[in-house]
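From the shared-data thread, chain only:
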Amino acid sequence: MTVTRRVTFEDNSVLVELYGVHDRNLARVEQLAEVQLRARANQVEITGDADDVTAAHKALTSLYERLKRGLTVEMADVDAAIRFARSGVAAEEEGIRTRKRTISARSPGQRDYLEALRERDMVFALGPAGSGKTYLAVAMGVSLLLAGKVERIVLSRPAVEAGERLGFLPGDMREKIDPYLRPLYDALHDMLPAELIAKRMEAGDIEIAPLAFMRGRTLSHCYVILDEAQNTTPMQMRMFLTRLGEGSRMIVTGDPSQTDLPGGQKSGLNDAVDTLGKVDGIRFVRLTSKDVVRHDLVTRIVEAYDARDRKIKG
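Structure, as C-alpha coordinates:
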Protein backbone atom coordinates (compact mmCIF):
# COMPACT_ATOMS: atom_id res chain seq x y z
CA MET A 1 0.00 0.00 0.00
CA THR A 2 1.42 3.37 -1.06
CA VAL A 3 1.40 6.13 1.56
CA THR A 4 2.68 9.69 1.76
CA ARG A 5 4.18 11.32 4.84
CA ARG A 6 5.71 14.73 5.43
CA VAL A 7 8.55 15.70 7.73
CA THR A 8 9.23 19.32 8.67
CA PHE A 9 12.64 20.66 9.75
CA GLU A 10 12.41 23.82 11.82
CA ASP A 11 16.09 24.81 11.65
CA ASN A 12 16.70 26.05 8.10
CA SER A 13 20.41 26.59 8.78
CA VAL A 14 21.23 22.88 8.48
CA LEU A 15 19.09 22.06 5.45
CA VAL A 16 21.89 22.51 2.90
CA GLU A 17 23.99 19.91 4.72
CA LEU A 18 21.00 17.66 5.32
CA TYR A 19 19.89 17.61 1.69
CA GLY A 20 23.46 17.52 0.36
CA VAL A 21 25.01 19.14 -2.69
CA HIS A 22 22.46 18.93 -5.52
CA ASP A 23 20.25 16.98 -3.06
CA ARG A 24 22.58 13.98 -3.22
CA ASN A 25 21.76 12.90 0.36
CA LEU A 26 18.06 12.86 -0.47
CA ALA A 27 18.82 10.86 -3.62
CA ARG A 28 20.72 8.32 -1.52
CA VAL A 29 17.79 7.99 0.91
CA GLU A 30 15.48 7.45 -2.07
CA GLN A 31 17.74 4.71 -3.40
CA LEU A 32 18.29 2.82 -0.14
CA ALA A 33 14.80 3.21 1.34
CA GLU A 34 13.10 2.67 -2.04
CA VAL A 35 10.88 5.74 -1.71
CA GLN A 36 10.26 8.96 -3.60
CA LEU A 37 11.18 12.27 -1.95
CA ARG A 38 10.04 15.76 -2.82
CA ALA A 39 11.69 18.64 -0.98
CA ARG A 40 9.98 22.01 -0.68
CA ALA A 41 11.80 24.53 1.49
CA ASN A 42 11.96 22.97 4.97
CA GLN A 43 9.53 20.12 4.22
CA VAL A 44 10.21 16.74 2.63
CA GLU A 45 7.35 14.64 1.28
CA ILE A 46 8.00 10.88 1.39
CA THR A 47 6.00 8.48 -0.80
CA GLY A 48 6.24 4.69 -0.95
CA ASP A 49 5.30 1.52 0.88
CA ALA A 50 4.47 2.11 4.54
CA ASP A 51 7.57 0.37 5.97
CA ASP A 52 9.87 2.13 3.50
CA VAL A 53 8.33 5.51 4.27
CA THR A 54 8.81 4.89 8.00
CA ALA A 55 12.47 3.97 7.46
CA ALA A 56 13.11 7.07 5.34
CA HIS A 57 11.37 9.30 7.91
CA LYS A 58 13.46 7.86 10.76
CA ALA A 59 16.67 8.23 8.75
CA LEU A 60 16.04 11.86 7.80
CA THR A 61 15.09 12.74 11.37
CA SER A 62 18.23 11.03 12.68
CA LEU A 63 20.46 12.91 10.23
CA TYR A 64 18.76 16.20 11.13
CA GLU A 65 19.40 15.61 14.84
CA ARG A 66 23.01 14.72 14.06
CA LEU A 67 23.50 18.09 12.36
CA LYS A 68 21.79 19.86 15.27
CA ARG A 69 24.45 18.35 17.57
CA GLY A 70 27.15 20.03 15.50
CA LEU A 71 28.29 16.90 13.64
CA THR A 72 28.68 16.55 9.88
CA VAL A 73 26.73 14.32 7.52
CA GLU A 74 28.62 12.38 4.86
CA MET A 75 27.31 9.76 2.46
CA ALA A 76 28.39 6.99 4.83
CA ASP A 77 26.29 8.61 7.56
CA VAL A 78 23.24 8.51 5.27
CA ASP A 79 23.84 4.80 4.66
CA ALA A 80 24.18 4.23 8.41
CA ALA A 81 20.95 6.11 9.16
CA ILE A 82 19.05 3.81 6.79
CA ARG A 83 20.64 0.71 8.33
CA PHE A 84 19.54 1.74 11.82
CA ALA A 85 16.09 2.78 10.61
CA ARG A 86 15.58 -0.60 8.93
CA SER A 87 16.77 -2.51 12.00
CA GLY A 88 14.59 -0.68 14.50
CA VAL A 89 17.68 -0.04 16.66
CA ALA A 90 18.39 3.55 17.67
CA ALA A 91 21.61 5.04 16.30
CA GLU A 92 24.31 5.72 18.88
CA GLU A 93 24.55 9.40 19.79
CA GLU A 94 27.73 9.51 21.87
CA GLY A 95 30.38 8.40 19.34
CA ILE A 96 34.14 8.37 19.87
CA ARG A 97 35.90 11.71 19.89
CA THR A 98 39.41 11.98 18.41
CA ARG A 99 41.43 15.01 17.36
CA LYS A 100 40.29 14.86 13.75
CA ARG A 101 36.72 13.58 13.94
CA THR A 102 33.94 12.03 15.96
CA ILE A 103 33.50 8.39 14.98
CA SER A 104 30.11 6.73 15.41
CA ALA A 105 28.76 3.23 14.93
CA ARG A 106 27.31 2.81 11.44
CA SER A 107 25.36 -0.40 11.99
CA PRO A 108 23.59 -2.17 14.88
CA GLY A 109 26.49 -4.66 15.03
CA GLN A 110 29.02 -1.86 15.35
CA ARG A 111 26.91 -0.33 18.11
CA ASP A 112 27.16 -3.61 20.06
CA TYR A 113 30.89 -3.64 19.40
CA LEU A 114 31.39 -0.12 20.80
CA GLU A 115 29.36 -1.09 23.86
CA ALA A 116 31.68 -4.06 24.43
CA LEU A 117 34.78 -1.88 23.96
CA ARG A 118 33.53 0.50 26.65
CA GLU A 119 32.54 -2.18 29.16
CA ARG A 120 35.00 -5.09 28.92
CA ASP A 121 38.74 -5.47 29.46
CA MET A 122 39.02 -8.16 26.77
CA VAL A 123 37.02 -8.17 23.54
CA PHE A 124 37.21 -10.44 20.50
CA ALA A 125 35.78 -8.90 17.31
CA LEU A 126 35.13 -11.42 14.55
CA GLY A 127 33.89 -10.38 11.14
CA PRO A 128 34.58 -9.74 7.45
CA ALA A 129 36.74 -7.06 5.86
CA GLY A 130 35.22 -3.60 6.07
CA SER A 131 33.06 -4.22 9.13
CA GLY A 132 35.03 -1.76 11.28
CA LYS A 133 36.77 -4.24 13.60
CA THR A 134 40.18 -2.55 13.61
CA TYR A 135 39.07 1.02 12.89
CA LEU A 136 36.68 1.24 15.84
CA ALA A 137 39.18 -0.45 18.17
CA VAL A 138 41.90 2.07 17.23
CA ALA A 139 39.42 4.95 17.60
CA MET A 140 38.52 3.83 21.12
CA GLY A 141 42.19 3.49 22.02
CA VAL A 142 42.99 6.99 20.72
CA SER A 143 40.05 8.44 22.66
CA LEU A 144 41.16 6.79 25.91
CA LEU A 145 44.77 7.90 25.40
CA LEU A 146 43.77 11.53 24.79
CA ALA A 147 41.55 11.43 27.87
CA GLY A 148 44.41 10.08 30.01
CA LYS A 149 42.58 6.85 30.83
CA VAL A 150 45.41 4.69 29.50
CA GLU A 151 49.12 5.47 29.35
CA ARG A 152 49.91 3.79 26.04
CA ILE A 153 48.40 2.24 22.93
CA VAL A 154 50.09 -0.94 21.70
CA LEU A 155 49.07 -2.09 18.21
CA SER A 156 50.24 -5.44 16.94
CA ARG A 157 49.86 -7.74 13.94
CA PRO A 158 51.35 -11.11 13.01
CA ALA A 159 53.82 -10.69 10.12
CA VAL A 160 52.25 -13.26 7.83
CA GLU A 161 52.25 -12.76 4.06
CA ALA A 162 48.76 -12.73 2.52
CA GLY A 163 49.40 -15.35 -0.15
CA GLU A 164 52.42 -13.49 -1.54
CA ARG A 165 56.17 -13.97 -1.23
CA LEU A 166 57.69 -10.59 -0.46
CA GLY A 167 61.27 -11.85 -0.48
CA PHE A 168 64.13 -10.03 1.17
CA LEU A 169 62.83 -6.52 1.77
CA PRO A 170 65.42 -3.72 1.91
CA GLY A 171 66.09 -1.53 4.91
CA ASP A 172 66.38 -1.97 8.67
CA MET A 173 64.03 -4.02 10.85
CA ARG A 174 61.38 -1.30 11.09
CA GLU A 175 61.38 -0.76 7.32
CA LYS A 176 61.01 -4.51 6.75
CA ILE A 177 57.96 -4.90 9.01
CA ASP A 178 56.21 -1.59 8.21
CA PRO A 179 54.31 -2.99 5.19
CA TYR A 180 52.61 -5.53 7.46
CA LEU A 181 51.60 -2.80 9.92
CA ARG A 182 50.53 -0.12 7.42
CA PRO A 183 46.73 -0.55 8.03
CA LEU A 184 47.29 0.39 11.67
CA TYR A 185 49.18 3.53 10.67
CA ASP A 186 46.37 4.40 8.24
CA ALA A 187 43.77 4.19 11.00
CA LEU A 188 45.85 6.39 13.31
CA HIS A 189 46.32 9.05 10.63
CA ASP A 190 42.55 9.18 10.17
CA MET A 191 42.17 10.21 13.81
CA LEU A 192 45.27 12.20 14.80
CA PRO A 193 47.46 14.85 13.12
CA ALA A 194 50.67 13.38 11.70
CA GLU A 195 52.89 15.53 13.94
CA LEU A 196 51.05 14.35 17.06
CA ILE A 197 51.40 10.70 16.00
CA ALA A 198 55.15 11.18 15.50
CA LYS A 199 55.47 12.91 18.89
CA ARG A 200 53.47 10.22 20.70
CA MET A 201 55.40 7.40 19.02
CA GLU A 202 58.73 9.02 19.89
CA ALA A 203 57.60 9.29 23.52
CA GLY A 204 56.48 5.65 23.52
CA ASP A 205 52.81 6.52 24.04
CA ILE A 206 51.92 4.78 20.78
CA GLU A 207 53.72 1.59 19.82
CA ILE A 208 53.21 -0.43 16.65
CA ALA A 209 55.00 -3.77 16.61
CA PRO A 210 54.75 -7.26 15.11
CA LEU A 211 53.37 -9.99 17.32
CA ALA A 212 56.78 -11.64 17.78
CA PHE A 213 57.94 -8.59 19.76
CA MET A 214 55.30 -9.20 22.46
CA ARG A 215 56.95 -12.30 23.98
CA GLY A 216 58.18 -11.86 27.52
CA ARG A 217 56.40 -8.54 28.11
CA THR A 218 53.76 -7.50 30.63
CA LEU A 219 51.52 -4.79 29.20
CA SER A 220 50.19 -2.68 32.08
CA HIS A 221 47.98 0.44 31.86
CA CYS A 222 47.78 -0.04 28.09
CA TYR A 223 45.18 -0.32 25.38
CA VAL A 224 46.37 -3.31 23.35
CA ILE A 225 45.07 -4.36 19.92
CA LEU A 226 45.97 -7.55 18.08
CA ASP A 227 44.85 -7.16 14.48
CA GLU A 228 44.51 -9.93 11.83
CA ALA A 229 44.44 -12.46 14.66
CA GLN A 230 43.29 -15.24 12.33
CA ASN A 231 46.95 -15.41 11.23
CA THR A 232 48.24 -16.33 14.68
CA THR A 233 49.02 -19.87 15.77
CA PRO A 234 47.37 -21.19 18.95
CA MET A 235 50.72 -20.84 20.76
CA GLN A 236 51.12 -17.23 19.62
CA MET A 237 47.58 -16.38 20.69
CA ARG A 238 48.08 -17.88 24.13
CA MET A 239 51.34 -15.94 24.49
CA PHE A 240 49.67 -12.67 23.50
CA LEU A 241 46.59 -12.99 25.71
CA THR A 242 48.72 -13.68 28.77
CA ARG A 243 50.56 -10.35 28.30
CA LEU A 244 47.55 -8.53 29.77
CA GLY A 245 48.67 -6.51 32.80
CA GLU A 246 47.10 -4.34 35.47
CA GLY A 247 44.85 -1.54 34.23
CA SER A 248 44.97 -2.69 30.61
CA ARG A 249 42.40 -3.53 27.97
CA MET A 250 42.97 -5.99 25.14
CA ILE A 251 41.13 -6.13 21.81
CA VAL A 252 41.59 -9.03 19.38
CA THR A 253 40.26 -8.60 15.84
CA GLY A 254 40.15 -10.98 12.90
CA ASP A 255 38.24 -12.66 10.11
CA PRO A 256 38.15 -16.44 10.70
CA SER A 257 37.41 -17.02 6.99
CA GLN A 258 40.63 -15.36 5.72
CA THR A 259 43.53 -17.12 7.39
CA ASP A 260 46.88 -16.95 5.58
CA LEU A 261 48.62 -19.59 7.71
CA PRO A 262 50.53 -22.17 5.66
CA GLY A 263 49.62 -25.82 5.29
CA GLY A 264 46.14 -25.67 6.75
CA GLN A 265 47.52 -24.89 10.22
CA LYS A 266 44.83 -24.19 12.84
CA SER A 267 44.24 -20.51 13.51
CA GLY A 268 44.93 -19.19 16.98
CA LEU A 269 41.80 -17.07 16.68
CA ASN A 270 39.54 -20.06 16.09
CA ASP A 271 41.33 -21.95 18.87
CA ALA A 272 40.75 -19.03 21.28
CA VAL A 273 37.05 -18.87 20.41
CA ASP A 274 36.70 -22.60 21.10
CA THR A 275 38.74 -22.45 24.32
CA LEU A 276 37.61 -19.17 25.88
CA GLY A 277 33.98 -18.99 24.77
CA LYS A 278 32.66 -19.45 28.32
CA VAL A 279 35.35 -17.54 30.25
CA ASP A 280 33.74 -14.83 32.39
CA GLY A 281 34.81 -11.28 31.53
CA ILE A 282 35.59 -11.87 27.85
CA ARG A 283 33.15 -10.54 25.24
CA PHE A 284 32.90 -12.02 21.74
CA VAL A 285 31.31 -9.74 19.11
CA ARG A 286 30.42 -11.25 15.75
CA LEU A 287 30.03 -8.78 12.89
CA THR A 288 28.54 -9.80 9.54
CA SER A 289 28.22 -8.56 5.96
CA LYS A 290 25.42 -6.28 7.23
CA ASP A 291 28.07 -4.35 9.17
CA VAL A 292 30.37 -3.75 6.18
CA VAL A 293 30.69 0.00 5.68
CA ARG A 294 32.93 0.13 2.63
CA HIS A 295 31.71 0.29 -0.97
CA ASP A 296 28.36 -1.43 -1.63
CA LEU A 297 30.19 -3.99 -3.75
CA VAL A 298 32.23 -5.14 -0.75
CA THR A 299 29.04 -6.22 1.02
CA ARG A 300 27.90 -8.17 -2.02
CA ILE A 301 31.36 -9.75 -2.44
CA VAL A 302 31.42 -10.88 1.21
CA GLU A 303 27.91 -12.34 0.91
CA ALA A 304 28.82 -14.19 -2.31
CA TYR A 305 31.90 -15.80 -0.74
CA ASP A 306 29.93 -16.69 2.41
CA ALA A 307 27.23 -18.33 0.28
CA ARG A 308 29.84 -20.34 -1.60
CA ASP A 309 31.51 -21.47 1.63
CA ARG A 310 28.18 -22.58 3.08
CA LYS A 311 27.47 -24.55 -0.10
CA ILE A 312 30.85 -26.29 0.09
CA LYS A 313 30.42 -27.16 3.78
CA GLY A 314 26.87 -28.35 3.12
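Residues 2-87 form a domain with the Ribosomal Protein S8; Chain: A, domain 1 fold (CATH 3.30.1370.10).
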